[in-house]
Amino acid sequence: MDGKVIVITSGKGGVGKTTATASIGAALAKDGKKVVVVDMDIGLRNLDVVMGLENRVVFNIVDVVRGKCRVSQAAIKDRKIDNLFLIPASQSDNKNSVTPEEMVLVCKDLKNEFDFILMDCPAGIEQGFENAVAGADEAVVICTPEVSSIRDADRIIGLLYAKKITPKLIVNRIIPAMVEKGDMLSHEDVVDVLSIELIGLVEMDDQVIVATNTGSSLVMNKESKAGMAFTRIAMRLNGQPGLPIEIPRTQVGLFKKLGRRIGISR
Amino acid sequence: MLNELLKKWRGTKTTSSQAAKKRLKFAIVYDNLEVSDDILDALKGDIIEVISRYFEIDTKSISLDIDRSEESSSLVLNTPILSAIRR
Ligand SMILES: Nc1ncnc2c1ncn2[C@@H]1O[C@H](COP(=O)(O)OP(=O)(O)O)[C@@H](O)[C@H]1O
Ligand SMILES: [Mg+2]
After folding, report:
1. Residues of A with CB below 8 A from B28's CB?
2. CATH number of the domain located at residue range(s) A4-262 in this protein
3. At what angle are helices A206-214 and A225-237 packed, to 10 degrees?
4. ipTM tops the 0.85 cut
5. C-beta separation of A121 from A5 below 8 A
6. Domain range list for chain A
7. Which of B16, B23, B31 is closest, CB to CB, to A182?
C-alpha cells in the first residue's frame, strides 16, 4: 500500500481540528478506504473520547515511536466503522517526547498499512506542530470566520509553504444568519484574505456536541449538516476534487430567494 | 431582506464583518513585515561587508532599523562615512 499522510492543523486551538479529523477519517473509511487517525496532541489526548474509544486505549503513538509496540498493536479498531483505526496520544508524556525525524519514520510505516493517515495536530507552532507536520504529504488548515483564527491560519499557512506543502482550507463554525446580516465574515472574505484553495464549509451545528457527548460519529448522522459537509470534504480528498462546495445558508423564503436571484441579498 | 435592500441603497454603514476584514488584512500585512532581530543582525553584517568594499565606515555606529507607519514600512540604514576607498 502507498498511503497518504494528511495533517489537520490550525494554529489556534478550539477551531475544530479534532472534530474534523474524526469526521473526515470516518467518512473516508465508510467509503472503503483503510484509515488511521493519529492523535498528535501528546499530553492532551482527546481524539479517543471524541470517537468513543477511550476505554480501549492500551498503547499510544509514543510507544510506537519508541518501538515498545507494533503499529498493529497500538491502532484501535473503531466500534462501528470497519477499516477505521485510532492511534491515541500518550497522556503522560509531553510534546518533546518524540522528534520530527522519528515521526517521518513512523509515517513511512503507516503508509505501508493504510490508505489514509490523518494527523490531528495540537494548537500552536512549536514542537507539537513540527511533529505532526514532519511526515505529512498534504495539509488541511481549519479556521473559523473570526479575526484571531484567520490570522493564526495565515501564520500556519506560511509555515507550511516553507515546508513545501500547499495546504487546503476548511472554514468551520459558520453561522449563516450572522453572515447574511453582515456580522460574520463570509467564506469569500476568508478565502480572499488567506488566498488558498477551499475544500469545505462547515456550519455551526448542535449535532457536533451531541455526537461528542456519546462518542458517536458525526458522519453517521444524516441529519447533521456539519456531518454531511465533512463527508463531502472527505470525497474531495479522495479523488473527487471537483465536487462542488455547498455554501451554508439559512432556510429561505420566497422573497429572499428572489433577492438572491437579483443579487441584492446573500 | 428589506434591511439589506435599504443598506444597499444607502450604501453607507459598514457591517462588523467588513470591519473585521479590514482589520485582518492590515494585521496580516503587518505580521509579514515583522523581522526577527536575528535576521536584522545577519542583514547588518552582510551590508557592512558590502559597504566596506567602497567606504571606510565605523561599524560600531551603523544603525539598521525598520520604520513602520500606517501606510508602509521602510528599511533605514544610517552610517557615518570615514573615508572613501580609492582604487
Ligand atoms: N461545526 C461545529 N459546530 C458546533 N460545534 C463545533 C463545531 N466544530 C467544533 N465544534 C466544537 O468546538 C469545540 C472545539 O472543537 P475541537 O474539534 O476540539 O477543536 P480543536 O481540536 O481544534 O481544538 C468542541 O467543543 C467541538 O464540539
Ligand atoms: Mg484538538
Report:
1. 151, 154, 193
2. 3.40.50.300
3. 80
4. no
5. no
6. 4-262
7. B16
